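Interim report to the steering committee. The following record documents the input for Pentacotripeptide-repeat region of PRORP domain-containing protein (281 residues).
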Amino acid sequence: MEQRNVASWNAMISGYVKNGRGWDALEIFKLMDLAGMHPNDITFMSAIDACADLQALLEGQILHAEITASGTEPDAYLRNALLHMYGRCGSLAMAESLFDDMPDRDRWSWNVMISSYAHAGHTRRSLAFFAEMALDGITPDGVTFVAVLGACSHAGRVDLGCHYFVSMSTDYSMARDVDHDLYVCLIDVLGRSGWIKEAEDLIANMPFQPDSVAWATLLGGYRNYGSLGRGAQQAAQCVFQLDPEDSAPYVLLHNLYKSGRRRQEGDGDFEQAMKPTMGYF
């Protein structure tokens, strides 16, 4: 191109980010600066998203400083991008400070805080943000409840997980049958806490055809509690059939075989059933 404007630079940076090439996106951002082209909010948003994907906290902090130094007041979208970046990078204190200073917090802002604390294992803080979200008059959505159920799963709180799952329809009139991820999260809550039978019942009666993620999540529950009977056979075989290229379930089973722990009656049948897959190892 003979002449490159801000839009053309933005297209390149955004394209690299969307294709999972965050470092290349940041290199283009640097070249843009060297070319004397001033970034706008869209440029900064793409670069911040790259830092979030890479969990590159230092680079994200440098970009945040550049935004502040530019004298331009960031809009709600850019503030949320910064919030997401700090949350992904595990800088929760900075994320919360930024959140507290936001004049226009929306559902996305609250979801970022709830999910960031949930992923970090801070269940109480995550659920506290969920309660504050309601007090602030913001209605939760499916993304909110996926984060909330994730927090319950990390804490092994089946009671809370089931409570929030039910409250979606009773308290918020939300249809639970529109989001497959919600059911996968509840399977995880049950499986992590040893409620394997209940997890089996849920996957058998969910209003979707279970995908490989759902079966793999159930398989993880069997792993956690050493249940390697016929239920685990079915879960493993379903994962293999639905996503034969995914190496994770193969590695999981391989490690279970090698460890020699948690073997139960029926393992011989299990090994026989998995025999066609063992060439992978």
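Confidence is low (pLDDT under 50) at residues 260-270, 276-281. The committee is asked to note this result when reviewing the revised timeline.
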